[in-house]
Design brief:
Chain C: Keywords: Endoplasmic reticulum, Glycoprotein, GPI-anchor biosynthesis, Membrane, Transmembrane, Transmembrane helix. By secondary structure, chain A is an alpha/beta fold. Chain A contains 23 helices and 14 strands. By secondary structure, chain C is of the alpha/beta class. The longest helix of chain C is centred in the C-terminal third of the chain and has 40 residues.
Chain lengths: 668, 525, 503
């Protein structure tokens, strides 16, 4: 083995790394026979430049190898800081309307006090329904009859959806007003669910829909059929109606067929009016599995509500700092130990306000939960939002609401084709400003990148090990490289036998699956489950240290933890970066909950460190079971609406954390 | 369902002298159960003892044509393309069979529909397809409608469902003694003023006199449903008969401020009937009385009978009132007035597959045999093996009720698919047909200008065996196909070509690269 | 890979020189095969047109011989002077109106016995009272011998009206091999009062129009259609003149220009592309009758007929007061209508009148050979000219617009028109009809080529767009290919040199 070749070989781990990525023409360790090589090199064209290039490349690779951990941590930190910086107003841009055909609030509305009066009458009837506490079926029949009285074909639909917590029964009422002179191929939906998203009854919302039906029948300028839906309960009723309107997907949900139908639904407005009057209209937009409606719908609604209805618009029910309860809400949003002079500072207030909106959005989207009945429409390529009449002592009522809804419908009525500009990637921070995809996506991608670097680093580390070189150099080679302080070390390649690692991975995923089955079954309360499983998991992890010993002669075989960690981190990184374009909030959640713990998983020589680490990972893996409310909610979402959050946590998150736990549980 | 009819005559010529050409006009007004009113204008001109041109004579110059009442423009089109029978309807809206019953003129499918029976010519340029195209162009020129786009993508020949309503002359050319049907629909076509104006010009009394005076565009185009029809047929014993029809469904409840269903000719059409058209052999207004027991008054007094020649000199304004009800109350449950109730939907929200579901209900106490015709553009493909037929709500399989099915598969980018079958409907029975379909992926040049709207699918047609004139059209459908965002095509092209270049580069590099052994000497510092 | 190959990579299979060259070669082959395909699919078909031949037409002129022979036997001593005077008159006319005579090669001489073929013979006769035309023979009473030159020249002059002598060139419709004659009876308002519900149009046409069509069948094919309209309002309000008790509604000359109301009247069927000559019989409503034409002094003139240049003719028919409300026009009422329609038709297709006093020998042929031949010559001359212009403008257009496709059919039409034209220019046409045929055929082909729908490209990308779109694809693909090509070539040459030096 010649000194040159040694020189080559010393750097070979990173050469090996770059072999994978830069199709280098070197890195093939050559064995002696210098003269032959010389001859061949002379035959070929002068290779000095290439050698230099390769050397440079090796240097870079070497640098990467040396500072890998710094790089990883740097990326991780940058990503997390970026996430924290999202509420800063510098990153954000003002909303605008992309589709020119919309022309929001360019029409004069016809909704007048007569219609308001009718709405009030409807309200009395609906309230009496509540007082006589009729069954949902009787309620639906009443609504259907009211629709029919105003000359609109109407019908009811009953459904029963089995869940772990008993069966959901209910009846929806709906009516389809086929617009004059149209072939009935397109439709828009006005809906109100019987229960408000506040949990109360949505009486005024229902009466608004009833009154709107009678009102719209008297005009001939509609270019699309208008479907009025009064769905039972809060979400499940609308879910049943929608899945019957499109193809019923879930075979064990019994949703009755619809006896009248219309065309393709383009837009849907869901009206939620729990209070007796309102001061603002709040927009709820998040849909199932993090889907969002086209931003044009929200923007044009905002314009209309402010100009036509004269009602200011909120995000959710978050008041702006400028308005009365706003400051209080934002103050309480900050931790109390912060001194007041910080909390009261204007910029901090602004930051807090936006952060509050973004956080609410993150929570909905990450859990894949619909923030209102509108959220069920998005999966059928329907743009839908909920108009939430924020309860207060006035000043607005049916009049403003009716006008706003009418004008919004007229705007959507203008559309000759769907809203198609790719306007679905956004985070709305205030009613009039939002984050473009370019300004929020990198944060998560950075975290993913750091994980990927870590994983690859581990991979290379698994493939090569640095050992003492007990080789006496021959004379001529001494001459060849006379550098005195050349360390007597060398890298040797190791086998990476992945079987054990894959075994662990598969086992962990199976464990996740079994947990999922268990909590879906709801045989026992998840809190208790948490108290049982977490310690068990801890103990098992610790036990691995003694049971799962790698074979002693591991000089030429990679140790299990290194391989496992490599696989674990690469998988996690891939998952996060893929998710980030589908459901950003979920990706961000994973980036935080996976990125940090996985980066710090490592086997340690000292037992106490190992024990504590195992404890941490055990808690991370199963601690969430203790939040039984959240768990049941997630399971309900999965079983009824098909939200992916619960399975994702059980089948992806838990196994990854478990793998990390195994890594730190194992002996080095 | 029992109807009684009243007559109001504008003019009546007791025609003993069989003039060569004869013109009759007729308006039928029918109050509907849901407070609306269906008006059916019919202007028919008879070209007595005329025989359609024989296609074999198409090469040569035509004999000179002399018309008095028959519109020359249309007559020449018939001669030029040797068309013995054709039917053109352009409608806006969805005819509600259940509430409005069967229309006076069966062709009420939404959009434009054109079908013609033609004998084959002897030369290439007089072949059926060439003349079919030419006929479309002439008609779209005549009516300012974009019928020219009824190309091979829309044209089918469902001969059993659209039988000729008249006779077909024997073809002179030997071995060509066969007539062929051409049928096409444009579901997205709408009626508007520029169609009505040339339509009226075909009438002897366009807009000043006679019943046609009521066709006032603003009122017609504010109606809930309206449609134009041109029907030409030939009867061996009578001659070539042209019938121009206008059908309107007006909502007097909507237009009246106090929500009553009372109507007068004034309130409906903005004017009363002026002097009669004095070249019409007869011009009559018929009012079909509602069958329900609501108390109504009708003025003026209708005629009982007319003999000899008679013509009205004063204006006629028919008034119908329901004095007892102060505002119209919609009936809550309306028994369907049509023989069949059909509901057709395209389910599924994916852009690759869907499910076509058709629900047919027989409202009659007797079994009904009917043709079932589906015409699908090529980009919606049927999976015939998934066709299921179930009865009632329990979903009993009764595939036996769907017999002698003929299916012409589509040719991609070329011709539509056509499914023709016979349905046996037991009395008061509901049939559910469901069929899975695949949605095609289009070339970017094949997308319409408003690509994101989706593609209109033509309505399906049900033709009862015992009453072919009571055709039933289902509503048209809209299908979403995978559509690129046409707002930025160049970006897409550039991006994809960059990607291809990248892949090519690396692959080529890998294949061509020459591996050499190089002496690398790294200074360790 | 084996240990040996590690020492020497070039022994690896995929490192073999020839394999690498094969790979590279196949890439190049792919590109080379692809290029023409790409070119074919993105370029526009532009067949070459016979530009030179068309340019060479520029100077050419059509020359039609026209020879007149004087019957020396009948004229005797006068003949020479006649010949001389004829020549001089023609020359002087040619001076005055070159555009009418320039294409004629006029030759006069006298003959004995039988007249030579394809010549117009003139003779003087004692017993005739007035000039008589028999086929191509004009015989003039001897006492009118002095008028012979003027008679003959005016007979040979196209578009010439008899009285007052002048030309009606502006009325003549543009030449077309096919015309559609549309006869329309317009009731201004049938609903108000009297209405004409029928007319014996077929009989009238066969009596008045058919003979002319038959004689001019060499020039045009005609298709005939007729209709009656019952509502045809005027776009203007006629001027009212009341002298004493009877009131007259007058059409001023300005009214006549805008008489036709295309918005309301549907006069002809647009079923074919042939140009239409309209003949309208307008029956004014009671409120507008009697309707008369006014002269510039706004006095009603006798005639109720007028021609709209190149469009058609219109006849006003004021119904007498005593007709029944539903009136059927009889032949007697229609005779003068259709006789004026006939005159209008002759004007529109360009048949010049016979000079005053001249009569045709056989009355059932309303047009004499003199008139027809004159018309043939004139039309042939015009067609040749316009066909030439059309061809030249096609060439110009194709030259100017680089994106204009030129298909097979266009090229064939152009060639056909061109060859017909060349034949026309080359030949000497003693029989004008045959010259006309060539000219009309050439014109038809030329205009068909000109209006060929394929001439406007449906889809083409401007070059800069092409490059903008393709550069990201082609540049990165081309660069490695070229570089490798150079490298391989250099390596190959080095090998050869080494081999040579080795041996």
């Amino acid at each position: 083995m010649s000194g040159r070749s040694r020189a080559v070989v010393r750097w070979s781990p990173w050469a090996g790394l770059q072999d994978k990525f830069t199709m280098s023409s070197s890195g093939i360790p050559l064995i002696g026979l210098v003269d032959r090589i010389r001859r061949r090199i002379r035959q070929l064209r002068p290779s000095g430049d290439i050698a230099a290039r390769i050397r440079k490349r090796k240097k870079v690779a070497a640098a990467v190898g040396k500072y890998l951990d710094v790089l990883r941590l740097g990326l991780l930190a940058t990503g997390c800081l970026w996430l924290l910086a999202l509420p800063l107003s510098h990153l954000q841009s003002g909303t605008y309307i992309d589709e020119n055909a919309l022309q929001p609030s360019q029409v004069n509305t016809y909704w007048d006090w007569g219609d308001v009066h009718r709405a009030d009458k409807f309200l009395q009837d609906v309230t009496s329904l509540l007082d006589r506490n009729l069954s949902s079926a009787e309620r639906a029949v009443f609504f259907a009859t009211e629709f029919a009285k105003s000359g609109i074909p109407s019908s009811t639909q009953r459904y029963s959806i089995p869940t772990a917590r008993g069966v959901l029964n209910g009846t929806n009422a709906y009516a389809i007003f086929s617009a004059p002179r149209t072939s009935g191929t397109e439709a828009v939906v006005i809906s109100a669910s019987w229960k408000s998203l506040t949990g109360g009854y949505n009486l005024r919302g229902v009466s608004t829909v009833l009154s709107l039906a009678t009102f719209m029948k008297h005009y001939s300028h509609w270019s699309k059929d208008i479907i009025f839906v009064i769905s039972d309960s809060h979400l499940d009723g609308m879910h049943a109606w929608l899945s019957a309107y499109h193809t019923p997907t879930n075979p064990n949900q019994d949703v009755g067929p619809l006896s009248i139908a219309s065309g393709v639904i383009w837009t849907a407005l869901n009206i939620d009016y729990p209070g007796h009057s309102f001061s603002h209209l709040g927009v709820f937009r998040e849909g199932l599995n993090g889907r969002l409606p086209n931003q044009d719908l929200i923007n044009s609604f905002r314009v209309i509500s402010q100009h036509t209805g004269g009602v200011p618009v909120l995000l959710y029910d978050h008041y702006e700092p400028s308005e009365f309860p706003g400051r209080e809400q934002i103050r309480s949003f900050f931790p109390t130990w912060l001194p007041d002079w910080i909390r009261e500072h204007e910029d901090v207030m602004e930051y807090g306000y936006r952060a509050k909106n973004i956080l609410r959005h993150f929570v909905y989207q990450a859990k894949g939960r619909a923030s209102g009945a509108h959220g069920l429409f998005h999966q059928y390529r329907i743009d839908a939002i909920t108009l939430f009449a924020v309860p207060s002592n006035g000043p607005h009522g049916f009049h403003a609401l009716g006008r706003t809804v009418e004008s919004t419908l007229r705007t959507m009525n203008n559309l000759l084709e769907r809203l198609h500009a790719s306007f679905f990637f956004y985070i709305i921070t205030t009613p009039s400003s939002f984050l473009k995809i370019g300004s929020y996506l990198p944060s998560v991608v950075l975290v993913a990148a750091s994980l990927m670097f870590g994983g690859l680093g581990e991979w290379v580390k698994a493939g090569w090990v640095e050992v003492k070189d007990e080789y006496m150099p021959s004379e001529k080679e001494k001459v060849a490289n006379a550098t005195p302080n050349s360390p007597k070390k060398k890298w040797i390649a190791r086998r990476r036998d992945l079987l054990d690692a894959f075994m662990v991975v598969v086992t962990s995923h199976l464990a996740g699956l079994s947990i999922f089955v268990v909590i879906c079954g709801e045989w026992l309360d998840t809190t208790r489950l948490a108290y049982i499983i977490t310690p068990m998991c801890w103990v098992t992890l610790v036990l691995f240290r003694f049971t799962l010993r790698p074979p002693p002669a591991s000089a030429n075989a990679a140790p299990l933890p290194v391989l496992l960690k490599a696989i674990n981190m690469c998988l996690a990184s891939t998952l996060i970066s893929v998710t980030s374009v589908l459901n950003f909030s979920l990706a961000a959640l994973l980036a935080i909950t996976l990125g940090v713990p996985l980066s710090f998983s490592a086997p340690s020589r000292s037992l106490p460190v190992c024990v504590t680490k195992c404890a941490v990972y055990a808690v991370l893996a199963f601690g969430w079971l203790a939040l039984s409310g959240e768990v049941t909610q997630a399971i309900w979402d999965w079983q009824v609406l098909g939200v992916w959050f619960a399975p994702l946590v059980c089948l992806i998150y838990v196994p990854f954390v478990l793998q990390a736990g195994v890594v730190s549980g194992l002996a080095p | 369902m029992r109807w009684s009819i009243l007559f109001f005559f504008l003019s009546w010529r007791f025609s003993v002298t069989a003039a060569v050409e004869e013109y009759r006009e007729e308006l039928t007004l029918r109050p509907l159960v849901d407070g609306k009113l269906a008006a059916h204008f019919s202007f028919s001109t008879l070209l007595r003892s005329a025989v359609p041109r024989d296609p074999s004579s198409l090469g040569t110059d035509d004999t000179s044509q002399h018309y008095t009442l028959f519109p020359l423009a249309l007559g020449q089109i018939l001669r030029e393309h040797a068309i013995p029978e054709f039917h053109l309807t352009i409608n806006s809206g969805k005819w509600d069979y259940d509430r409005w019953g069967h229309p006076g003129e069966p062709g009420v499918g939404s959009g434009a529909e054109l079908w013609a029976w033609m004998g084959d010519g002897t030369a290439v340029q007089t072949s059926i397809d060439a003349r079919w195209k030419a006929l479309q162009n002439s008609l779209s020129g005549l009516f300012c409608a974009s019928l020219g786009s009824m190309d091979a993508l829309h044209t089918t020949s469902p001969a059993n469902a659209f039988l000729p309503t008249g006779d077909l002359p024997r073809l002179l050319a030997p071995a060509r003694d066969a007539y062929t049907l051409r049928h096409a629909t444009l579901p997205a076509e709408r009626v508007c003023t520029e169609n009505l104006t040339p339509f009226l010009k075909l009438l002897p009394c366009p807009s000043r006199a006679g019943i046609a005076a009521l066709l006032e565009p603003h009122r017609i185009f504010d109606a809930d449903w309206h449609g134009l029809g041109v029907h030409v047929r030939w009867r061996a014993d009578r001659g070539v008969q042209l019938t121009l029809t206008v059908q309107v469904v007006l909502d007097s409840v909507r237009t009246s401020t106090e929500r009553r269903r009372d109507w007068t000719l004034e309130s409906l059409f903005g004017r009363s009937l002026p002097r009669s058209c004095n070249v019409a052999s007869s011009s009559v207004v018929l009012v079909t009385l509602p069958s329900d027991e609501s108390a109504y008054t009708l003025s003026p007094e209708p005629h009982v009978s007319i003999e000899g020649t008679w013509s009205r000199t004063s204006d006629l304004n028919i008034v119908m009132k329901w004095p007892e009800e102060e505002r119209f109350s919609y009936p809550l449950n309306i028994p369907p007035l049509s023989d069949l109730s059909v509901r057709r939907t395209l389910k599924g929200s994916s852009q690759t597959h869907g499910e076509l579901s058709v629900v047919v209900r027989n409202n009659r106490p007797v079994p009904v045999r009917t043709h079932y015709l589906e015409t699908m553009p090529w980009h919606v493909e049927f999976f015939l093996h998934t066709l299921t037929v179930t009865c009632g709500d329990r979903g009993v399989d009764c595939a036996s009720l769907l017999t002698n099915m003929t299916y012409t598969p589509s040719r991609p980018h070329a011709t539509p698919a056509q499914l023709l079958a016979t349905l046996e409907l037991p009395p008061h029975e509901t049939l559910h047909l469901s069929l899975r379909v695949r949605k095609a992926f289009l070339r970017y040049t094949e997308h319409p200008p408003d690509a994101q709207r989706g593609w209109d699918l033509p309505p399906a047609v049900f033709v009862p065996f015992d009453a072919p004139h009571r055709r039933i059209y289902t509503p048209a459908l809209l299908v979403d196909l995978a559509t690129p965002d046409f707002s930025m095509p160049y970006n897409v092209i550039i991006m994809s070509s960059t990607l291809i270049a990248l892949i090519f580069g690396s692959l080529f590099n890998m294949l061509i690269r020459r591996f050499v052994v190089i002496e690398v000497d790294v200074k360790v510092d | 890979m084996s240990g040996h190959s590690l020492k020497d990579p070039s022994t690896l299979l995929f490192q073999k020189q020839w394999i690498r060259r094969w790979i590279f070669g196949s890439y190049m082959a792919l590109v080379l095969l692809g290029l023409p395909l790409w070119w074919r699919t993105t370029s526009i078909e532009r067949l070459s047109l016979p530009t030179l031949r068309i340019d060479s037409l520029g100077g050419k002129e059509l020359h039609l011989p026209l020879s007149v022979a004087i019957d020396a036997a009948s004229t005797g001593t006068l003949s020479d002077s006649l010949v001389h005077r004829l020549r001089s008159t023609f020359e002087s006319r040619k001076e005055q109106a070159p555009n009418l005579y320039s294409h004629l090669e006029f030759s006069v001489d006298s003959f004995q016995g039988a007249a030579p073929p394809d010549t117009y013979s003139v003779s003087l006769s004692e017993d005739a009272q007035f000039p008589i035309i028999q086929n191509k023979h004009l015989s003039v009473p001897i006492h009118q011998a002095s008028k012979v030159p003027d008679l003959l020249i005016s007979l040979l002059t196209p578009y010439e009206t008899a009285s007052p002598p002048g030309t009606f060139r502006h009325l003549v419709a543009k030449y077309s091999p096919r015309y559609r004659l549309s006869f329309t009876l317009l009731n201004e308002d049938a609903a108000a009062g009297k209405v004409v519900v029928g007319w014996d149009v077929a009989k009238m046409i066969s009596r008045w129009i058919a003979p002319i069509l038959e004689q001019t069948s060499e020039l045009h094919n005609f298709t005939i259609e007729s209709q009656i309209r019952f509502y045809a309002p005027l776009a203007f309000e006629p001027r009212i003149l009341s002298n004493g008790e009877d009131m007259v509604h007058g059409l001023t000359q300005e009214h006549l220009k805008v008489f036709v109301n295309p918005a309301e009247w549907t006069l002809a069927s647009g079923v074919s592309n042939d140009p239409v000559l309209h003949f309208v019989l307008f029956v004014p409503s009671d409120s507008h009758s009697p309707l008369r034409i006014l002269n510039d002094a706004s006095q009603p003139i006798f005639s109720d007929v007028f021609v709209l240049p190149q469009w058609g003719g219109i006849v006003l028919l004021n119904l007498p007061t005593d007709v029944p409300p539903k009136h059927h026009l009889t032949e007697t009422e229609l005779d003068h209508v259709f006789s004026s329609f006939q005159t209008q038709l002759r004007r529109l297709i360009g048949v010049s009148d016979l000079p005053p006093g001249v009569q045709s020998a056989d009355p059932d042929r309303p047009l004499t050979d003199f008139q027809l031949d004159t018309l043939y010559r004139q039309r042939a001359f015009e067609n040749a000219g316009s066909s030439k212009e059309t061809l030249q403008s096609i060439i110009k257009l194709v030259h100017q617009i680089p994106n204009m496709p030129v298909g097979q059919d266009v090229r064939d039409d152009v060639r056909g028109a061109l060859s017909a034209l060349e034949v026309l220019y080359a030949g000497v046409w003693r029989v004008p009809a045959s010259a006309l045929q060539h000219s009309s055929r050439s014109l038809a082909l030329a205009s068909r080529a000109f209006f060929n729908p394929g001439m406007l490209a449906l889809l083409y990308f401007p070059a800069e767009h092409k490059y903008a779109v393709y550069t990201p694809l082609f540049a990165p693909v081309a660069v490695p290919l070229v570089v490798t090509l150079l490298r391989e070539v250099s390596a190959w040459r080095k090998d050869r040199r080494e081999k040579r030096s080795a041996t």
